[in-house]
Amino acid sequence: MTDAPISADLLIKHAWIVTMDAQRHVYRDGAIAIAADRIVAVGPSAEVERQVLAKEIIDGTDRFVVTPGFVNCHIHITGEPITRGYVPDNTDWRTNVFEWLIPTYMAQTPEQEQISARLAALEMLRTGTTCFVEAGTILNIDAVMEALAETGIRGRLGQWLQDRAFAPDDDQAKLTADAIARMEAQQAAYPVSGDPLLATWPCLVGHNTATDDLWRAATDLARESGTGVTAHMSADPADPEFYLETTGRRAIAHLADLGALGPHLSLTHAVYLDEEEVSLLAESGTSVTHCPMTAMKGGYGATAAGSFPEMAAAGVNIQLGTDGNNNGNAADMMRAMFVTAGLFKDARRDTSLFSSYRVLEMGTLNGARGAQLGETIGALAPGMKADFVLHDRDRPEWRPLFNAVNQLIYSADGRGVHSVWVDGRRVVDNYHSTLIDEEKLFAEAEAAGKDVLEKANMPIPSEWPVI
């Protein structure tokens, strides 16, 4: 008796497949089959074709490379996408944040946040990102959730959360109570239970903006509900200096004392650490999100002061993010992976650091783990979610092809993404969204960006005359 064939909705055959499975199989002539939202078979084309009876077949002969969808673990999806590139590149970290970015965030309407979120989602999807973790600067979570639901992307996001009293007349107790109430309300409205594409987390702004009480409440909520927590931390020496001054301990050590570290937590940037902090991160299972393009544009000192090779050697889960567009970044994770593969090789004069293989793990498996989705996305294997990308080989950067991983990291970028599936649904086909009216969105983004900058009374500087 022969086994009954596996029923599938889609079979892609005769393609290069970079699986990221436990053995890291790469198939030169591979096939992948999906049924509903799950992968049901992956392997050599001849084997999978014998096993699967599919409703639709795509022949990838000499055309496609298939990878898992990328996971962007730190991106600002409101504000910055619709004011992209207006911040000059000679601003330091504090000036960039407080004098350029925050005024434009505060000038947005909920409708403009929606436009920005759709634009960010479109850019991510069209460059191969299928899942993201938002950076914690959304003002109207309901409006943004509504907009993102139309795009087909997977994400974990949250409303702007901070509570520290900085002005003398601030009511600290009320600020903390209000922040915790917002955090709990969003979790009740958009829980992670039930396998949703979109759900909320405690997304703390971080740095020195959260009190110990807010950190404890976010940590407790994450552990009780199975979410993650994300926060900016130690992008600048100001963060460890603040915590040393106010608590006697550096930032990561203080979070450890609070019980806030752990596998639920992702800290973004984490440039200014000492050896104890690296050890605490590794021992606790805390993830670190490296945003290499932001570090370069903002002069953060990641290569001069950062301990990313030491963190990797210690076993810290390093994942990648593209951060904000006004930090000079496209939301293209392939660009972030390329930069990550090169920065520390050059800075340390050590070509063994962050190979293309390790960097692809950061952009897929490590990101999935940090997004608390490591059991369902990040790899192409039976039972995993059908989140995957077809890279078009009919382009000069993909010819000839000998090593798909090297090619992916060092030669290609998101402009070669042909098609994308999220949760078994084709959301990009032949370089365009299947769900978003791109022409309409681009016009809306142009108008929204102009309006935000005008309301915020922000200049658009240029060293050269723009006539």
TrEMBL record:
Gene3D superfamilies reported for this sequence: Metal-dependent hydrolases, Urease, subunit C, domain 1
Record's signal peptide: none
Keyword Hydrolase carried by entry: yes
Keyword Hydrolase: yes
EC number: 3.8.1.8
Superkingdom classification of source: Bacteria
Single annotated GO MF: hydrolase activity, acting on carbon-nitrogen (but not peptide) bonds
Any matching Pfam family: Amidohydro_1
Alphabetic keyword roster: Hydrolase
Family in the record: Belongs to the metallo-dependent hydrolases superfamily. ATZ/TRZ family.
Protein name, as recorded: Atrazine chlorohydrolase
Gene name, Swiss-Prot/TrEMBL: atzA
